[in-house]
Amino acid sequence: MDSVDVFVCLLVVAIIVVSLLSNVLVLICFLYNPEIRKQVPGLFTLNLTFCNLLLTVSNMPLTLVGLVSKGQPGSDAFCNAVGFLETFLTTSSMLSMAALSIDRWIAVVFPLSYHSKMRHRDATVVLGYTWVHSMSFSAAAACFSWVGYHQLYASCTLSETRASHGRTQFIVFTVTFHALTFLLSFVVLCITYLKVLKVARIHCKRIDIITMQTLVLLVDIHPSVRQRCLEEQRRRRQRATRKISTFIGTFVLCFAPYVITRLLELWPTVPITQHWGLLCKCLAYSKAACDPFVYSLLRHQYRKTCTDIINRLLKRRSMNSNDWQRRTGPSTIVQALESPRAIKGCAP
Questions:
Q1: Rounded Cα–Cα distance for residues 59 and 285 (Å)
Q2: 135-153 pLDDT per residue, tens
Q3: Which helix (H) or strand (E) holds 342?
Q4: Least-confidence region, from 9-18, 39-48, 198-207, 212-221
Q5: Average pLDDT in the 104-110 region?
């Protein structure tokens, strides 16, 4: 193994650790807080978290094994099953992000009718569609033997090496698959979040007008207070843009290089090095580690839940410590000191 392979192995290990811990923490918060479970977006977040967890414990370690052994991990049937699972989980996670963006668009643009437009029953229907959509492409790839070990990415994924049908059919399937997963999700994210950003800017302008009118009326206001209000205006305008840029930016940064490489791979004249393929695969895997922070853990409700869990654990430890001190209190210490062995040890 050269230095690049060692770096990629360490990167995959880091992604596995961060993804596993962060996604498990999201599940713990979901189970601990009943308010999160009552919310409709919680279903989409739960589906996204399960997809990321399964991808972390099934595909990422096998990619690490493929990197170290320079070969296929396991038998052909095992690799086909893993490739089927990767196709299903990746598609389901992309569509879950698109569903979350639609939910937030409805919540911001139609706040008064949100509870009638997006109910748990509606969210279940959307999740059912994501599973059917994901299962259809995964099953088609498995039936036509378009999954297997790919040396360029050192993983079991979509591959033409064992294709039992013609190259043209594989090209059509690959283009259609990425168009109806990555491209469809990207378009939905852009349309919904840009509409959310537009509404947020309108609200910010209204708040800014009210704030400026208040500052004009308050002639005797201290300059530091005025400056603080103006800084809050600027932060308010940047907050929505920063959040939406994070949603769309992480999606494009993590998935776009891998998808573009898979499409360029269909033309044999385009040279693609294995190091570039491994880097693109690591970027795609890193989305599973980013999603818990982007969609859950950085939100106030999840942060508060994590704080409550930590405080509860610390309180329980403190109570256990107090119980131990109570059991081994002064009377126990006196009895130990009054024992013949202690007296003999203290004698000159």
A1: 9
A2: 999 999 998 889 989 988 9
A3: helix 340-346
A4: 212-221
A5: 89
Residues in the chain: 348
Chain centroid to Cα 221, Å, comes to 45
**What are phi and psi for residue 155, nearest 5 degrees?**
-150, 165
Statement: the pTM of the whole predicted model exceeds 0.90: no
- Candidates 113, 26, 87, 37; CA nearest to 293 is 26
Among residues 233, 278, 261, 296, which one has the least CA distance to residue 96? 296
The string of DSSP letters for 87-148 reads HHHHHHHHHHHHHHHHHHHHHHHSSTTHHHHS-HHHHHHHHHHHHHHHHHHHHHHHHTT-EE
Tens-place pLDDT, residues 207-233: 656 665 565 555 556 666 656 766 766
Helix-helix angle 167-178:223-264, to 10 degrees? 170
Give backbone dihedrals phi and psi of 164, rounded to 5 degrees, phi first.
Answer: -90, -10
